[in-house]
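In these records, each integer encodes one residue's backbone shape. Here is one protein:

___
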Amino acid sequence: MTHNIAVIVDAYSTGAKLAAKFHSEGVAVLHVQSASPIIDFYINDFRPGDFIANVVFNGLAECLVEMNRWLNGIKPICVLAGAETGIELADLLAAELGVEGNSTETSRVRRDKYAMACALKEAGLATPYFLRTDNLHTLTEWASGHCWPIVLKPLASAGNDSVFFCNAQALRHALQTTVRIYVPIKLCRP
């Protein structure tokens, strides 16, 4: 058995390719699944045969016990998020296992689209116009002052999951489909 083990939380999308890269360096990989079942958006990406085991998260204490069973006393060389869905849990597990990683205090900023935009704005960086709302009237009123189309995206989605490019007539349908909205729009040019 190898003495090097990496942990990947939600090895989906491009993260599904990480295990093969670790294997090419002689590193075994343990997978942690942040939720069960795997969401449809990612199900076809998951390659269970790439891992020494798949641990399904059902609470922190239970997850750590199961992980430690597979780690067999070996401290992982890293804990990585393979997809956006694994960001917060990867940060938490890295902290719990004493592995260098991102701070759990800022995990939400790397996952929640609204928190991301706020952090960028607070840092003085250019951001699109944005709003978080689940109210059609609020959204329509806000949107009337901006150019179209408007992009609606759930706060914690990944990729193009439940993303809508909307004109004024499409807002109602998109808002009913997408709960809690992050709304960036194109920056209008004069």
In short: The two ends are 63 Å apart (CA to CA).
